[in-house]
Design brief:
The chain is of the alpha/beta class. The chain is about 40% helix and about 15% strand. The protein is globular.
Length: about 180
């Protein structure tokens, strides 16, 4: 897995970013049990987060929630890959600012998305994962089943990131680090 981390770091021109990347890759990402799950028109608390690799897409309270919700269908391909490969789950997590929770839920429900969206209403994910919340470069990443980041970036952003993402999944498979 270190080879993949090295590939990611070699693209980091900014020394502070490279330092933060190395630090991030040594941490365990906390995915709290109290996330709200919006699926269709249903909102449930806590839940059924499997112990498996997760591709996390995170939106903090600085993101325009309604703008971002309108872009969520663009992530459908990620869910299709997850369904097809059965090697990871996709988690889109919003951490809305105080007083915006109800509006965010309404926007997500109105969109009638085919896949769940998670809401960090208590800001436990946001507060527990400092580097994720402080640096937008870490707003999309893949973890192994223990929650260790193994890939950083949105695989839909470009072909190189897509290639690296699938290399990370291959390594997780070879290591038996899926479920």
């Amino acid at each position: 897995m270190m080879a993949l981390v090295t590939l990611c770091l070699s693209g980091c021109k900014n020394g502070k970013l490279a330092h933060n990347m190395r630090e991030f890759m040594t941490q365990t990402v906390i995915i709290p049990d109290d996330l709200k799950k919006v699926s269709g028109s249903e909102v449930v608390s806590g839940g059924d987060i499997e112990n498996c690799p997760h591709l996390v897409i995170f939106y903090d309270n600085l993101s325009c929630s309604s703008c971002t919700v309108n872009k969520l269908p663009e992530y459908q391909r990620l869910f299709e890959w997850a369904d097809s490969l059965q090697t990871f789950d996709v988690m889109i997590i919003f951490s809305p600012e105080q007083g915006k929770y109800e509006t965010l839920v309404k926007d997500i429900v109105l969109k009638q998305l085919p896949n769940p969206v998670y809401i960090d209403s208590s800001h436990v994910f946001h507060d527990s994962n400092r580097l994720v919340s402080e640096n937008e470069y870490f707003h999309a990443f893949l973890t192994d089943r223990q929650g260790k980041p193994v890939f950083v970036g949105n695989p839909l952003a470009n072909e190189r990131l897509k290639e690296l993402f699938f290399q990370a999944l291959d390594i997780l498979t070879e290591e038996g680090n899926l479920f």
